[in-house]
Amino acid sequence: MKLFTCKRPPWHLFRGDKFRVLWKRAFTGGGKKSPRIEADGTTANCKVVKVITIDPNLSERRLLKVLVDEGIHACNFDLDNEVVDQYSDAISSFIWKVGYRLPRIPEDDQEE
């Protein structure tokens, strides 16, 4: 049951590049050499297609971390994934620590 709400923009500019944002379950891999596995978020930064996919069913804190992670990838796709993971952990933890939270859904409107 979701207790928070967030806007779902269909696109966003990162360093001048327009990325389409898809709000659905994300998958990574699936090529000839790697199996298709579920992910919380993905970023595709090709010359023709620039897409970020975010799983909208994440917990509030996990969603914050994934948004920061995919935003960093969109800004600098050449960074190693381990480095991006460290950055996004540190940034999202800091944002959470200072009290950032998404708006609550009123109790009358919550799904059961």
Could you characterize the architecture of this molecule?
The mean pLDDT is 89. A hairpin with a 2-residue loop joins strand 1 (11-14) and strand 2. 29% of the residues lie in helices and 24% in strands. The chain has two helices and six strands; from the N terminus they run E-E-E-E-E-E-H-H. The chain has 112 residues and is α+β, with helices and mostly antiparallel strands. The chain has one domain (11-100). The strands form two sheets. The protein has a four-stranded mixed beta sheet with strand order 1-2-6-5, with helices on one face. A two-stranded antiparallel sheet has the order 3-4. Helix 1 (60-75) crosses helix 2 (81-97). It has helices at residues 60-75, 81-97, and strands spanning 11-14, 17-23, 26-28, 37-39, 41-45, 50-54. The N and C termini lie close together (7 Å).
What distinguishing features does this structure have?
6 strands, 24% strand, alpha+beta, 112 residues, four-stranded mixed sheet
Poorly predicted ranges (pLDDT <50, ≥5 residues)?
Answer: none
Tell me, what's the shape?
A: globular
Q: In percent, how helical is the residue content?
A: 25-40%
From the alpha carbons, calculate the radius of gyration and give it in angstroms.
Answer: 15 Å
Average pLDDT confidence is 89
Number of strands: 6
Helix count?
2
First CA to last CA: what distance?
7 Å
Give the strand content. Answer: 15-25%
In N-to-C order, the SSE pattern is EEEEEEHH
- How many independent structural domains? 1
Helix and strand content put the structural class at alpha+beta
Largest sheet: 4 strands, mixed
Side by side, the strands of the main sheet go 1-2-6-5
Q: Give the oligomeric state of the chains in this entry, treating copies of one chain as homo and distinct chains as hetero.
A: single chain
